[in-house]
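Q: Hi! First time doing this. I have a protein sequence and I read that you can turn it into a structure. Is that right? Here it is:
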Amino acid sequence: MNELRYVYAVTRPFDGVLPEGVCGLDGEPPRLLHHGDLVAVVSPVPAEDFAEAPLKEHLENLDWLTATARVHEAVIGAMTTVTCPVPLRLATVCRDDSGVRRLLDAGHDRFVQTLERLDGRVEWGVKVYADPEPDPSPQPEPSQAAPAAAPASGRDYLRRRLSMRQAREGVWERADAVSRTLHAELSQRAQAAALHRPQDSRLSEARGQNVLNAAYLVPREHSEEFVAEVRRLAPEDPGVRVELTGPWAPYSFAGQAGQEEAGAAR
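A: Yes, that's right. Below is the predicted 3D structure, encoded as structure tokens:
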């Protein structure tokens, strides 16, 4: 069976080894391919899944995509504990070791510049959700034992609808205000910030509607203070939820280092 090379990340040579138990897409620990002053983190993968045509089909399969992304992120997360990696985009594949070396050569200057910019830094994600409060006076379930209640008047119905709409609008306004304050304050404590498109709740399965989806580049040694600031700014509001994730490898700040060369290096 022909094997290709899946490339997770690029980093500098480093002392130490990856944490025990981390596995790549082949179920084995990823291999470190040294080339000059750079190192690629790779795994062998079958051509029947990762050659151009089958890969295109797989990327439209949500289950396959989710499983692959989970392994991809786990490998990069493990790398982050021992060095500063430049994460590559999902499904960066080269034909063989020579293709990986060509990838490193073609993107060398950008990789080096990105590594210098990201060295010693991690990414923290902050999301704000508007989670409208439930109707304060829900109607009781009809009961066979109790007599049926008289239908509400048209005026009562409209009043109730208006109250519900005003409650939802109030939550959105508070979530927007919290988002603006958080982003302004956290941007001052980070070396860089990135605003991403709000996530679709139907895909993320998170409760409520995503209002803020931001990432912040923070020196690793300042992470504790950054986390404390997020917690200080998070409101005690049942309708507004703040979610903090990280520390991650700096995905949002790696730019496109080496990505243009990936196809040519196959």
